[in-house]
Every structure is written in structure tokens, then in C-alpha cells.
Amino acid sequence: MRESVFQTQIGADVAEAARWLEAGQCVAIPTETVYGLAANALDTAAVARIYEVKNRPTFDPLIVHVLDAASAETYVEDFPAMLRRLAENFWPGPLTVLLPKKAVIPDLVTSGLPRVALRAPAHPVARQLLARLSFPLAAPSANPFGYISPTTAQHVYDQLQGQIPYILDGGPCTVGVESTIVGVEDGALVVYRLGGVAVEAIEEAAKTSVTVRQHSTSNPTAPGMLTTHYAPRKRLLLWPSANDWPVPAAGQNLGLLLFKRRQTLPPHTRCVVLSNEGDLSEAAQRLFSALRTLDNANDVEVIWAEQCPDIGLGRAINDRLRRAAATTE
Ligand code: TXA
Ligand code: MG
What we know:
Elements: E1 9-11, H1 14-22, E2 27-29, E3 36-40, H2 44-54, E4 63-65, H3 69-73, H4 81-90, E5 95-100, H5 107-110, E6 115-119, H6 124-132, E7 137-138, H7 153-160, E8 166-168, E9 180-185, E10 188-193, H8 199-206, E11 211-212, E12 235-239, E13 254-258, E14 270-273, H9 280-296, E15 302-306, H10 313-326
Parallel strand pairs: 1-8, 2-8, 4-6, 5-9, 10-11, 12-15, 13-14, 13-15
Antiparallel strand pairs: 2-3, 3-7, 4-7, 5-6, 9-10
Threonylcarbamoyladenylate (TXA) binds near residues 96, 117, 119, 141 and 178.
């Protein structure tokens, strides 16, 4: 545990959050996807503090949050029509676009890359905060690097208590998985991270097919795509379907993460169902909370997770589960 620097407060006071941010400090903020660890994106020292608090390597760049596309314009050299159309369709919302940055965005924000990741969040509290600030907010998910992303103010408190002065509480996140990250390469749309906007929805809005390119550990331009990520401390094993689960070792205490309710289950000590009826949005919303519950349960040694159908938000859920499992393989 790191030394405490602050008496961390949780509250719903947007003005208080703004005061800390204006003073160059980091504040946890709600967004519709996950809670973010925010700081003034134009202030290198404040941005450096994000990396420090998160224990995040500086080769992993940050997303910059803006109120809308007009504000995004201020920070970029160009906003290609293809991405503009997506922003029109999905902002405010869980979509991040990569655009060539202006010099006003510090290199530390983009880890020296030429493009900056921009997103206009939909959460009303985040929007109130952005509306009263004179600067955009750099904000990665508010978890220690590599661990499960937080979807409540309490999740943030459990891990960053003492490290930041204030957690702005906006209730549980409604989307539950991070934003989808898109950019343009050679005139074509590329999705670098599966997330809260389904690939199918992007293809429909863009009226073109997109390439999904992730899972690179060696290429720093592949965003958020370290193979190991979103990981619980316990061992997590993946199964395509609960019907295919093997028999557990004798005496092994299992935690089951089920996509939907099942009639018959292998012997287990604890089971969390993401969505009784198998609704992908509901499953995404509950995913990180469910992983935390099983990770923190004293009677669970190993987590078995069932994969979702690989469509819509199910692709983002399966992506997170694969990365959570990758740590222990
Ligand atoms: O939904 C979200 O996107 C949340 C909320 C807080 O907005 N944020 C989030 O941030 O998930 P983070 O840092 O956990 O993941 C963002 C990923 C990073 O892993 C990074 O690699 C990638 O986006 N990224 C950011 N800026 C980039 C850039 N300029 N070029 C390439 N990748 C970038
Ligand atoms: Mg993250």
C-alpha cells in the first residue's frame, strides 16, 4: 500500500471537483462507461500525476474528454469526415476517436504519438463538470494499472483511497465497459479497442465495414491493447459455454461468472449471473462489478467465466474476459 497523501472524500459536488482540478490535482469522475481518473489535459504536471497515481507506464497514452465535437476541434489539426460522422452519431457517448493533435496537447498525454484520443462522455455529471472547466480532462480508467476498471465510486475508493483528494460520485456506470476506440488508416476505419459502441453500429453509421485490430503488446499505437489487462488477482479461466464446463478438482472452491441464468451447474461455492435473460447491455453493465465480487470473495479460489455470444457488446465483454484470463496463462 502506498503512502496516503490525501483524506479522500466521496461526494456529488461538481464545484468541489472543479476546484481540485483547477488546482492541478487528480479527481475521479463518473462517466457512462467506467470511472475515470481525471486531470487537466493541458497541464503536463497534472497529467504526470495521473500516471503516478495509477502506476501506469508512460507509453500507454490517455483519453482526453471534451464536451462536444466543437470543443474537440480546438485540439486537433484535422477531423476527417468519416470520424466526424461517427462523432455526430455517437457523441456524447462511449466512442473515442483518434485525431492528429495540436501542440497544445502535451506529448505526455499521447505518449509521444501524433494522434490524441478524444471522447465526449454522456454522463450528465461529467458533462456538468466539463461545461464549467476551461480545459479538457485527460482520464484513463480510475484503477491501478492492469486491474479491473471501476464502475462505482466505492470501487475507486477501495483502490485509490489516500492517493486523490476527491471522488465525484455519479452513481453506478450504465454502460460498464470502456469506450470503443476508432481511427482512420489509409482512408479506412480501424477499431483499436472493442467497447461500449458495437462494431455493427459503427459499420451501420459509417456505411462501410471496419477492421478490428487489437491484441498487440508490441505496438504502442494499438490502444489499450496490452494482452494482460482488466485482470482480477485470482486465476480466471474461460469457457465458451457453461454447458462445456469440466468437473472441478476435488475440494476446489469455484466462483462462476455466468452470462445468463442456467438450470444445471457444476458444484460451486458462488455464482454471479451477469444477466438473467442474457441481455448483452445488462451483462456489460455488471461485468466489472461481478469480477470484483468474485475476486474479493473469501470462499472463491478460482474464477470460471462463461463467454457471451460474440456479437454486439458481447465482443467487448469477451475481449475483457480474455484479457482478464491472460494474466494467469
Ligand atoms: O470509456 C473509456 O474510454 C474510459 C473512460 C474513463 O472514458 N477511459 C479509458 O481509458 O478506458 P484507459 O486509459 O483505461 O484506456 C484508454 C486506452 C489506453 O489503453 C491507450 O492505449 C489508448 O486508449 N489511447 C489513448 N490515447 C491514445 C493515442 N493517442 N493513440 C493510441 N492509443 C491511445
Ligand atoms: Mg483502463
